[in-house]
Design goal:
Helix content is 51%, strand content 1%. It is mainly α.
Protein backbone atom coordinates (compact mmCIF):
# COMPACT_ATOMS: atom_id res chain seq x y z
CA UNK A 1 0.00 0.00 0.00
CA UNK A 2 1.40 3.39 -0.92
CA UNK A 3 0.79 6.92 0.19
CA UNK A 4 -1.45 8.93 -2.09
CA UNK A 5 -1.15 12.69 -2.03
CA UNK A 6 -4.27 14.55 -3.05
CA UNK A 7 -4.42 17.87 -4.82
CA UNK A 8 -4.80 21.23 -3.15
CA UNK A 9 -7.63 21.33 -0.66
CA UNK A 10 -8.11 17.55 -0.57
CA UNK A 11 -7.33 15.12 2.23
CA UNK A 12 -4.31 12.80 2.17
CA UNK A 13 -5.10 9.19 2.92
CA UNK A 14 -3.27 6.31 4.55
CA UNK A 15 -2.42 3.18 2.65
CA UNK A 16 -4.12 4.19 -0.59
CA UNK A 17 -7.54 3.96 1.08
CA UNK A 18 -10.49 5.13 -0.95
CA UNK A 19 -12.73 8.00 0.10
CA UNK A 20 -15.53 5.47 0.60
CA UNK A 21 -13.38 3.40 2.98
CA UNK A 22 -12.35 6.42 5.01
CA UNK A 23 -15.92 7.71 5.23
CA UNK A 24 -17.06 4.29 6.42
CA UNK A 25 -14.35 4.25 9.09
CA UNK A 26 -15.38 7.71 10.25
CA UNK A 27 -19.05 6.71 10.41
CA UNK A 28 -18.20 3.57 12.38
CA UNK A 29 -16.08 5.56 14.81
CA UNK A 30 -18.70 8.25 15.16
CA UNK A 31 -21.48 5.76 15.92
CA UNK A 32 -19.43 3.78 18.39
CA UNK A 33 -18.07 6.81 20.17
CA UNK A 34 -21.62 7.90 20.81
CA UNK A 35 -22.59 4.47 22.18
CA UNK A 36 -19.41 3.76 24.12
CA UNK A 37 -18.01 6.81 25.90
CA UNK A 38 -14.30 7.02 26.57
CA UNK A 39 -13.27 5.84 29.99
CA UNK A 40 -12.31 8.45 32.52
CA UNK A 41 -9.87 8.29 35.37
CA UNK A 42 -7.92 5.11 36.00
CA UNK A 43 -5.85 2.95 33.68
CA UNK A 44 -7.25 0.67 30.99
CA UNK A 45 -5.02 -2.39 30.92
CA UNK A 46 -5.36 -5.46 28.72
CA UNK A 47 -5.40 -8.33 31.25
CA UNK A 48 -1.90 -9.34 32.30
CA UNK A 49 -2.66 -13.01 31.60
CA UNK A 50 -2.70 -12.13 27.90
CA UNK A 51 0.71 -10.43 27.96
CA UNK A 52 3.66 -10.50 30.32
CA UNK A 53 4.40 -7.13 31.90
CA UNK A 54 7.31 -8.54 33.91
CA UNK A 55 8.96 -9.86 30.74
CA UNK A 56 8.44 -6.49 29.03
CA UNK A 57 10.07 -4.73 31.98
CA UNK A 58 12.98 -7.18 31.95
CA UNK A 59 13.55 -6.65 28.22
CA UNK A 60 13.43 -2.86 28.48
CA UNK A 61 15.72 -2.87 31.52
CA UNK A 62 18.25 -5.07 29.77
CA UNK A 63 18.22 -2.87 26.69
CA UNK A 64 18.64 0.45 28.52
CA UNK A 65 21.42 -1.08 30.61
CA UNK A 66 23.18 -2.20 27.45
CA UNK A 67 22.66 1.17 25.76
CA UNK A 68 24.00 3.19 28.69
CA UNK A 69 27.21 1.13 28.70
CA UNK A 70 27.59 0.68 24.94
CA UNK A 71 30.83 2.48 23.92
CA UNK A 72 29.36 4.13 20.75
CA UNK A 73 26.66 5.75 22.91
CA UNK A 74 29.19 7.41 25.24
CA UNK A 75 29.47 11.20 25.22
CA UNK A 76 31.53 13.78 27.09
CA UNK A 77 31.36 14.52 30.83
CA UNK A 78 30.62 10.84 31.50
CA UNK A 79 27.21 11.01 29.80
CA UNK A 80 25.56 8.99 27.04
CA UNK A 81 23.39 9.77 24.04
CA UNK A 82 19.67 10.00 24.76
CA UNK A 83 18.47 8.01 21.76
CA UNK A 84 15.14 8.22 19.95
CA UNK A 85 14.93 4.44 19.64
CA UNK A 86 15.95 3.16 23.08
CA UNK A 87 16.38 5.79 25.81
CA UNK A 88 13.42 8.10 25.17
CA UNK A 89 10.86 5.30 24.62
CA UNK A 90 12.17 3.57 27.75
CA UNK A 91 11.58 6.72 29.79
CA UNK A 92 8.02 7.00 28.49
CA UNK A 93 7.06 3.38 29.09
CA UNK A 94 8.95 2.17 32.17
CA UNK A 95 6.89 4.13 34.74
CA UNK A 96 3.72 2.44 33.42
CA UNK A 97 5.22 -0.97 34.16
CA UNK A 98 6.19 0.15 37.64
CA UNK A 99 2.56 1.05 38.16
CA UNK A 100 1.45 -2.50 37.34
CA UNK A 101 4.09 -3.99 39.64
CA UNK A 102 3.25 -1.62 42.46
CA UNK A 103 6.78 -0.16 42.55
CA UNK A 104 6.46 3.36 43.99
CA UNK A 105 9.78 4.87 42.93
CA UNK A 106 12.04 4.77 39.86
CA UNK A 107 14.44 1.85 39.64
CA UNK A 108 18.20 2.25 39.69
CA UNK A 109 18.25 2.07 35.88
CA UNK A 110 15.57 4.74 35.55
CA UNK A 111 17.42 6.89 38.04
CA UNK A 112 20.65 6.54 36.07
CA UNK A 113 18.89 7.64 32.87
CA UNK A 114 17.29 10.60 34.65
CA UNK A 115 20.61 11.59 36.24
CA UNK A 116 22.22 11.54 32.79
CA UNK A 117 19.52 13.81 31.36
CA UNK A 118 19.66 16.16 34.32
CA UNK A 119 23.44 16.40 34.12
CA UNK A 120 23.29 17.38 30.47
CA UNK A 121 20.49 19.87 31.13
CA UNK A 122 22.41 21.56 33.95
CA UNK A 123 25.59 21.64 31.84
CA UNK A 124 23.81 22.60 28.62
CA UNK A 125 26.32 25.28 27.67
CA UNK A 126 29.32 23.08 28.52
CA UNK A 127 28.49 19.61 27.20
CA UNK A 128 29.35 18.86 23.60
CA UNK A 129 26.47 18.18 21.19
CA UNK A 130 25.74 14.56 20.42
CA UNK A 131 27.17 15.01 16.91
CA UNK A 132 29.38 18.12 16.57
CA UNK A 133 29.65 19.83 13.19
CA UNK A 134 32.84 18.81 11.38
CA UNK A 135 33.06 21.72 8.97
CA UNK A 136 31.55 25.09 8.10
CA UNK A 137 28.03 24.58 6.88
CA UNK A 138 27.68 21.20 8.61
CA UNK A 139 24.37 21.48 10.54
CA UNK A 140 25.00 18.61 12.95
CA UNK A 141 25.63 20.78 16.02
CA UNK A 142 22.35 22.65 15.57
CA UNK A 143 20.51 19.43 14.73
CA UNK A 144 21.92 17.73 17.81
CA UNK A 145 20.96 20.60 20.10
CA UNK A 146 17.44 20.80 18.73
CA UNK A 147 16.87 17.06 18.96
CA UNK A 148 18.33 16.65 22.42
CA UNK A 149 16.47 19.64 23.83
CA UNK A 150 13.14 18.04 22.89
CA UNK A 151 14.07 14.59 24.20
CA UNK A 152 15.37 16.02 27.49
CA UNK A 153 12.19 18.01 27.99
CA UNK A 154 9.95 15.06 27.11
CA UNK A 155 11.71 12.68 29.50
CA UNK A 156 11.71 15.04 32.47
CA UNK A 157 8.10 16.09 31.89
CA UNK A 158 7.15 12.40 31.85
CA UNK A 159 8.65 11.91 35.28
CA UNK A 160 6.92 15.02 36.63
CA UNK A 161 3.49 13.72 35.58
CA UNK A 162 1.21 13.26 38.53
CA UNK A 163 2.99 15.81 40.69
CA UNK A 164 1.01 18.72 39.27
CA UNK A 165 4.13 20.85 38.87
CA UNK A 166 7.40 21.05 37.00
CA UNK A 167 10.66 20.42 38.82
CA UNK A 168 13.39 23.07 38.47
CA UNK A 169 15.38 20.74 36.18
CA UNK A 170 12.36 20.13 33.96
CA UNK A 171 11.75 23.85 33.73
CA UNK A 172 15.40 24.33 32.80
CA UNK A 173 15.11 21.65 30.10
CA UNK A 174 12.00 23.26 28.63
CA UNK A 175 13.67 26.68 28.66
CA UNK A 176 16.53 25.19 26.63
CA UNK A 177 14.04 23.57 24.27
CA UNK A 178 12.22 26.83 23.52
CA UNK A 179 15.56 28.58 23.04
CA UNK A 180 16.46 26.11 20.26
CA UNK A 181 13.17 26.60 18.41
CA UNK A 182 13.41 28.13 14.93
CA UNK A 183 11.77 31.56 14.88
CA UNK A 184 12.11 32.41 11.18
CA UNK A 185 12.16 30.69 7.81
CA UNK A 186 10.01 28.02 6.23
CA UNK A 187 10.43 25.70 9.25
CA UNK A 188 9.69 28.39 11.86
CA UNK A 189 8.06 26.81 14.86
CA UNK A 190 10.01 23.56 14.47
CA UNK A 191 13.48 22.61 15.70
CA UNK A 192 16.65 21.59 13.89
CA UNK A 193 16.48 17.79 13.90
CA UNK A 194 19.12 15.14 13.29
CA UNK A 195 19.19 13.94 9.69
CA UNK A 196 21.05 10.72 8.92
CA UNK A 197 18.67 9.45 6.23
CA UNK A 198 17.39 6.84 8.66
CA UNK A 199 13.62 6.47 8.97
CA UNK A 200 11.47 6.86 11.01
CA UNK A 201 13.35 9.14 13.44
CA UNK A 202 16.34 10.52 11.56
CA UNK A 203 15.20 10.78 7.97
CA UNK A 204 13.20 13.85 6.96
CA UNK A 205 11.88 13.75 10.54
CA UNK A 206 11.70 17.41 11.53
CA UNK A 207 7.91 17.27 11.72
CA UNK A 208 8.12 14.18 13.93
CA UNK A 209 10.41 16.08 16.28
CA UNK A 210 8.07 19.08 16.45
CA UNK A 211 5.14 16.78 17.19
CA UNK A 212 7.17 15.16 19.96
CA UNK A 213 7.80 18.63 21.41
CA UNK A 214 4.05 19.22 21.32
CA UNK A 215 3.51 15.94 23.20
CA UNK A 216 5.99 17.12 25.83
CA UNK A 217 4.24 20.47 26.23
CA UNK A 218 0.87 18.73 26.31
CA UNK A 219 2.01 16.69 29.31
CA UNK A 220 2.90 19.78 31.36
CA UNK A 221 0.48 21.26 33.92
CA UNK A 222 -2.21 23.56 32.49
CA UNK A 223 -0.65 26.51 34.29
CA UNK A 224 2.55 26.09 32.29
CA UNK A 225 0.79 25.48 28.99
CA UNK A 226 -1.10 28.74 29.42
CA UNK A 227 1.78 30.83 30.73
CA UNK A 228 2.80 34.01 28.88
CA UNK A 229 6.44 32.87 28.73
CA UNK A 230 5.70 30.11 26.23
CA UNK A 231 2.79 31.73 24.39
CA UNK A 232 4.77 32.86 21.37
CA UNK A 233 6.73 29.62 21.05
CA UNK A 234 3.62 27.48 21.41
CA UNK A 235 1.85 29.58 18.80
CA UNK A 236 4.73 29.10 16.36
CA UNK A 237 4.78 25.37 17.07
CA UNK A 238 1.04 25.02 16.53
CA UNK A 239 1.17 26.98 13.28
CA UNK A 240 4.03 24.82 11.99
CA UNK A 241 2.23 21.57 12.76
CA UNK A 242 -1.02 22.73 11.19
CA UNK A 243 0.46 24.10 7.97
CA UNK A 244 2.76 21.12 7.49
CA UNK A 245 0.27 18.34 8.15
CA UNK A 246 -0.91 17.72 4.59
CA UNK A 247 2.61 17.07 3.28
CA UNK A 248 3.53 14.55 5.97
CA UNK A 249 3.76 10.78 5.71
CA UNK A 250 1.00 9.06 7.69
CA UNK A 251 3.11 7.97 10.67
CA UNK A 252 4.00 11.61 11.34
CA UNK A 253 0.34 12.56 11.27
CA UNK A 254 -0.26 9.87 13.89
CA UNK A 255 2.14 11.85 16.09
CA UNK A 256 0.01 14.96 15.46
CA UNK A 257 -3.09 13.04 16.55
CA UNK A 258 -1.33 12.12 19.79
CA UNK A 259 -0.12 15.66 20.42
CA UNK A 260 -3.56 17.13 19.76
CA UNK A 261 -5.07 15.09 22.59
CA UNK A 262 -3.79 17.70 25.05
CA UNK A 263 -3.32 20.60 22.68
CA UNK A 264 -6.77 20.50 21.05
CA UNK A 265 -6.26 23.63 18.96
CA UNK A 266 -3.94 21.62 16.71
CA UNK A 267 -6.90 19.80 15.15
CA UNK A 268 -10.52 20.77 14.66
CA UNK A 269 -13.08 18.17 15.67
CA UNK A 270 -13.86 17.49 12.02
CA UNK A 271 -10.19 17.09 11.08
CA UNK A 272 -9.55 14.83 14.07
CA UNK A 273 -12.37 12.49 13.00
CA UNK A 274 -11.07 12.45 9.44
CA UNK A 275 -7.56 11.65 10.63
CA UNK A 276 -8.87 8.87 12.85
CA UNK A 277 -10.68 7.44 9.84
CA UNK A 278 -7.47 7.53 7.80
CA UNK A 279 -5.62 5.69 10.55
CA UNK A 280 -8.24 2.99 10.87
CA UNK A 281 -8.30 2.47 7.10
CA UNK A 282 -4.63 1.38 7.24
CA UNK A 283 -5.26 -1.53 9.61
CA UNK A 284 -4.26 -4.99 8.40
CA UNK A 285 -6.57 -8.00 8.40
CA UNK A 286 -5.06 -9.42 11.60
CA UNK A 287 -5.65 -6.20 13.52
CA UNK A 288 -2.07 -4.90 13.34
CA UNK A 289 -0.57 -1.91 11.57
CA UNK A 290 2.56 -2.03 9.42
CA UNK A 291 5.07 0.79 9.52
CA UNK A 292 6.07 0.14 5.92
CA UNK A 293 2.61 1.27 4.72
CA UNK A 294 2.81 4.52 6.69
CA UNK A 295 6.08 6.01 5.43
CA UNK A 296 5.40 6.81 1.80
CA UNK A 297 7.92 5.63 -0.78
CA UNK A 298 10.80 4.96 1.62
CA UNK A 299 13.32 2.38 0.42
CA UNK A 300 16.05 0.53 2.26
CA UNK A 301 19.64 1.50 1.55
CA UNK A 302 20.59 -2.09 0.73
CA UNK A 303 17.60 -2.47 -1.63
CA UNK A 304 16.16 -5.35 0.37
CA UNK A 305 12.35 -5.41 0.56
CA UNK A 306 10.63 -3.80 3.52
CA UNK A 307 8.94 -6.10 6.00
CA UNK A 308 5.19 -6.04 5.33
CA UNK A 309 3.97 -7.82 8.44
CA UNK A 310 2.37 -5.88 11.25
CA UNK A 311 4.81 -4.55 13.83
CA UNK A 312 4.70 -3.48 17.45
CA UNK A 313 5.94 0.04 16.81
CA UNK A 314 3.25 1.14 14.35
CA UNK A 315 0.51 -0.80 16.15
CA UNK A 316 1.49 0.44 19.60
CA UNK A 317 1.90 4.07 18.54
CA UNK A 318 -1.38 4.11 16.62
CA UNK A 319 -3.36 2.48 19.43
CA UNK A 320 -1.85 4.96 21.89
CA UNK A 321 -2.71 7.93 19.66
CA UNK A 322 -6.27 6.68 19.10
CA UNK A 323 -6.78 6.07 22.81
CA UNK A 324 -5.47 9.50 23.69
CA UNK A 325 -7.76 11.01 21.04
CA UNK A 326 -10.72 9.50 22.87
CA UNK A 327 -11.53 6.51 20.67
CA UNK A 328 -13.14 3.94 22.99
CA UNK A 329 -11.14 0.82 23.76
CA UNK A 330 -14.19 -1.22 22.80
CA UNK A 331 -14.26 0.22 19.28
CA UNK A 332 -13.79 -2.99 17.25
CA UNK A 333 -10.67 -1.93 15.33
CA UNK A 334 -8.95 -0.58 18.44
CA UNK A 335 -9.91 -3.71 20.37
CA UNK A 336 -8.48 -5.92 17.62
CA UNK A 337 -5.23 -3.94 17.57
CA UNK A 338 -4.86 -4.16 21.35
CA UNK A 339 -5.45 -7.89 21.26
CA UNK A 340 -2.91 -8.25 18.44
CA UNK A 341 -0.40 -6.56 20.71
CA UNK A 342 -1.29 -8.82 23.61
CA UNK A 343 -0.89 -11.90 21.41
CA UNK A 344 2.37 -10.93 19.71
CA UNK A 345 4.79 -10.37 22.56
CA UNK A 346 7.81 -12.63 22.22
CA UNK A 347 9.04 -15.00 24.91
CA UNK A 348 11.86 -12.51 25.54
CA UNK A 349 9.30 -9.83 26.45
CA UNK A 350 9.67 -7.63 23.36
CA UNK A 351 7.47 -6.89 20.37
CA UNK A 352 8.49 -7.35 16.72
CA UNK A 353 9.61 -4.47 14.53
CA UNK A 354 12.12 -4.23 11.70
CA UNK A 355 14.53 -1.64 10.39
CA UNK A 356 13.29 0.53 7.55
CA UNK A 357 16.84 1.30 6.46
CA UNK A 358 18.49 -2.06 5.85
CA UNK A 359 18.08 -5.73 6.64
CA UNK A 360 19.72 -6.11 10.01
CA UNK A 361 20.96 -9.05 12.03
CA UNK A 362 18.40 -9.21 14.88
CA UNK A 363 21.18 -10.21 17.27
CA UNK A 364 23.20 -7.05 16.54
CA UNK A 365 22.97 -3.90 18.62
CA UNK A 366 21.29 -1.93 15.83
CA UNK A 367 19.07 -4.94 15.16
CA UNK A 368 17.36 -4.30 18.50
CA UNK A 369 16.58 -0.61 18.02
CA UNK A 370 13.18 -0.95 16.36
CA UNK A 371 12.09 -3.58 18.87
CA UNK A 372 13.18 -1.31 21.72
CA UNK A 373 10.79 1.38 20.53
CA UNK A 374 8.11 -1.16 19.59
CA UNK A 375 8.16 -2.66 23.07
CA UNK A 376 7.87 0.72 24.75
CA UNK A 377 4.92 1.83 22.62
CA UNK A 378 3.20 -1.54 22.93
CA UNK A 379 3.44 -1.18 26.71
CA UNK A 380 2.02 2.35 26.54
CA UNK A 381 -0.86 1.16 24.37
CA UNK A 382 -1.67 -1.73 26.70
CA UNK A 383 -1.41 0.28 29.93
CA UNK A 384 -2.70 3.67 28.85
CA UNK A 385 -4.40 6.01 31.31
CA UNK A 386 -6.63 8.74 29.98
Amino acid sequence: MGLQRAGSGEATFFGGASMKTVRLAIVVFGCLSGMLPAQEGGPSVVPSKSWNSQAAAAYLDARISRWMDWPPAARDHDTFCVSCHTAAPYALARPALRGIAGEPTPSALERRLLDNVIRRVRMWKDVAPFYPSKSDGDPKTAESRGTESILNGLILVRYDEGSGKLSPDTKLALDAMWAEQLKTGAARGAWPWLEFHNSPWEGDSQYYGAALAAVAVGKTPAEYRGSPEIRDGLKLLSEYLVRGEASQVPINRVMLLWAAARLPRLLSGERQKALIGEVLAAQQADGSFCLCSLIGGWKRKDNTPLETRGDGYATGLIVLALEQAGVPDAQPQVSRARHWLAANQSADGNWPAWSLNKQRDPASEAGHFMSDAATAYAVLALTHSR
